[in-house]
Amino acid sequence: MTREQTEKLNPRPFVGIVRIALALLAIVALGVGFDRDVYLHAWVDFFFYFTDLSNLFGAAVLLTGGLAALRGRPGPSDLLRGAAVLYLVITGLVYWTLLANQMTAETIKWQNDIVHGVMPAAVLIDWLLLPPVSRLSFARTSRWLAFPLTYLAVSLIRGPIVQWWPYDFLDPREPGGYVHVTTWSLIVTAIFVLFAALITLAGNQLGSRRSAVGSAELAGSVGSA
Question: What are phi and psi of 184, to 5 degrees?
Answer without folding.
Answer: -70, -30
